[in-house]
Amino acid sequence: MQSIQANNYLVHFNENAYEALNKHLKENKYSNLFIIVDTETNEHCLPKLLPVLETDLNIEIIEFEAGEANKNIETCIQIWHVLTELGADRKSLVINLGGGVVTDLGGFVASTFKRGVDFINIPTTLLSMVDASVGGKTGVDLGNLKNQIGVINVPQMVLIDTQYLETLPQSEMRSGLAEMLKHGLIYDAAYWKEFLDLQAIDYNALDQLIYRSVEIKNEIVIQDPTEKNIRKALNFGHTLGHAIESYFLESEEKTTLLHGEAIAVGMILESYISLHKNLITPTEYSEIKTAIQAIYDQIEFEEKDIDPILELLVHDKKNEYGLIQFALIEGIGKIKINQSVENKLILEAFQDYKS
């Protein structure tokens, strides 16, 4: 597979990935190498990576506990301390091996340690391959508020090796699939159609579907690296999805949702809003809702859940001048950004989802 040129770095795939990595290690005079993993990728993915590294550099492994609950500044502080104790300097290289939590947090740690050291991301989940691999967003959560602290800073390269997906449970594969569905809905109607009959998908072609998803996100980000305009399209499903994810993360009565599970709900809700703003047809809405509900379990919402979710919208990073901004679809494969939505319509969307 041909590498994809992103903003100031390349995304390499499968057989080209480690060749590019070892070439980079050979050509750059790094002082030492730190690999950041979580407890899951330390066990399942690191044994695959270490044997293919061709370097004489001293390699140190830094592990933290897996899970969104640990994507916070406290974990960063611990890692900054470990880097300091192990003698990391400005010429160190950090490799982040893991899902979106690892690449987001590890990228932020590297971008801020000694005002920035080089880092490379190796995403190991479907979600991180098609989402966190492109765009340079790094950061951590602030309490239950998603990705409130961070910087945009690109890695030296991203390596996508789809063999890591063999270690994933089906729930994590479905979580990543949500972002792929989103890419079709906002940008490529033909790509969306590929997912309407999951039974018919040739999973030998999964690599090509992942490649196209990365391509779509990259084409959008290149036009607008700092999210002033068209990059906001990538937030479809995320305005409500992130609020739902945050609410379920903080509520002791709720089971924490995977990112893609929350985004799947968000896409249905925001498609309903698109329908009632006359941006999509009833047929298109029915197609979207039916396709997503065929993949994801129904999430139960009680009446008392809705107000706290709406309150969390106030903290959404996309808000400007105190107004909540939605990215809505304008027909399948097109997007309309900077859309304000009344609470009444959001409540109607929840009622429709529950019906």
Automatic annotation (TrEMBL):
Keyword Membrane appears in the UniProt entry: no
GO CC terms, sorted: cytoplasm
Domain 3-dehydroquinate synthase N-terminal: 62-174
GO biological process: aromatic amino acid family biosynthetic process; chorismate biosynthetic process
A Pfam family reported for this protein in Swiss-Prot or TrEMBL: DHQS_C
GO molecular function term, any single one: nucleotide binding
Listed SUPFAM superfamilies: Dehydroquinate synthase-like
Protein keywords: Cobalt, Lyase, Metal-binding, NAD, Nucleotide-binding, Zinc
Superkingdom of this protein's organism: Bacteria
This protein's record includes keyword Lyase: yes
Chain ranges of the 3-dehydroquinate synthase C-terminal domain: 176-319
Cofactor(s) the protein needs: Co(2+); Zn(2+); NAD(+)
UniProt EC number: 4.2.3.4
Known role: Catalyzes the conversion of 3-deoxy-D-arabino-heptulosonate 7-phosphate (DAHP) to dehydroquinate (DHQ).
Official protein name in the record: 3-dehydroquinate synthase
Organism: Flavobacterium johnsoniae
